[in-house]
Amino acid sequence: MADPRPEKRAAAGTESERTTGAGFRDGANEAMVEASADGIIAVDERGIIRLANPAAEMLFARSTGDLVGSAFGAPTVVNQTSEIDLIRPDGSARVVEMRVTATTWHGEHIYVAALRDVTRRKQAEQDLEAALERQTTVVAVAAHELRTPVAAIKLLVHLLRDRRSRLSEEQTVEIIDEIVVRIDRLQALMHKLLTASRIDAEDIRAAPEPVRVLETLLERLAEFEEKAQDVSLSCDPELVAVVDRYELSEMLTNYLENAFAYGRPPVEVRAIEQSGRVEIRVCDRGPGVPDSFAPHLFERFSHAPRADQQAGGTGLGLWIVRSLAQAAGGDAWYEPNDDGGACFCLRLPGTPNP
Fold first, then answer.
1. Of the four listed, 7, 108, 144, 283, which is most buried by Cβ atoms within 10 Å?
2. How many beta carbons lie within 10 A of that of residue 11, not counting itself?
C-alpha cells in the first residue's frame, strides 16, 4: 500500500473544485459528517479530497484546509474494508481501517471513506500473538527439560523399591542423594519458568529499596555450599543498590549458576560504586563465549552451539537477569575476561551510604 498521506496540489484545486467542496459541506451531509466518530473523507472520481471532518483532521494530523483539494493517495474500492498504514507529517504511523461507500451528489459521483484508527487494537493483537507464542515455547521447553530428570528420578525410585534388600547402606545413600540432586534441578527449572511468566505478565515491579550488596552476595553464596569456596569476593560493606531485594537475589543467583555451570574456577565477584551506580561483575576462567554467539547470550532460550551438555540449563537465566535489571533502571551485559574466560556484568541504581 502506498503512503496514503495526501500530497497537496500546488493550487489546492481549481476554483470549481473549491466551490464544489464548499457546497458539499452544506446542510444535512455536513452535520452527519461532522458528528461522526470516524474520520470521514469524501473523494471525487479523480481522487481529490472534497471534504474532511474533524476526526479526519486528527487522524491525518493535518487541517481541513490542507486536506481539501489534495490527492487522497489510497485506492477507493466500494463496499470493501481494508487496512492502510497512514504515515503522518511528523513521521508517526497509524493503522487505519477504511470502509468505502459511494454516493451521488448533484449528479457527481463521490466516494466516501470512513477511517477508523485501529492502531491500539492491532498492537494488542500482536502482543497477544506474541504472548501465545511465548507460552507455547515455554510449555515445549518445560516438557523437554522435565522429561529427563523425571524419568531419572522414577528409575532411581524403582531401584530403591525393587532392590532395597540387596543394596548396601552406602548404595542406598548414594541413590537418595542423586534423587535429591535431581529434585533440586527440577525446582530450579520451575523457579525460572515462573519468573519468566512473571516478567511476561509485567508483574516484576516491586518498590525498590536500599539494599546492601555484600549481604545479598553472601546470602546467595551460602546457597551454593562447597562451590562458594572457589569464589573470590570483593565488595565494600557499605555499598548499596536501590532495587527490589528479591530481584537482586534472583539476578545474582543466575549469574553465579552460570559461572559454576559453564565457567571454571576461580570465580571472582567484584562489586563497586561507579558514577552513582552499582556495578557487579561475575568473572570465571572458563573457555569464554564464542564471538558468534555473544550477541545472543541474553536472548530467551538461547544455548551456545557447543554448550556443555552436562551443564543443562533452560537458556532463561541470562534473559531473566537482563529483564529484571532493565526493569529496575539498569542493564546487564557480557565482556570477555582479560585473564581468559567470561565476565557477566550488572549495573543497578545506587544511593549514598545509609
1. 283
2. 10
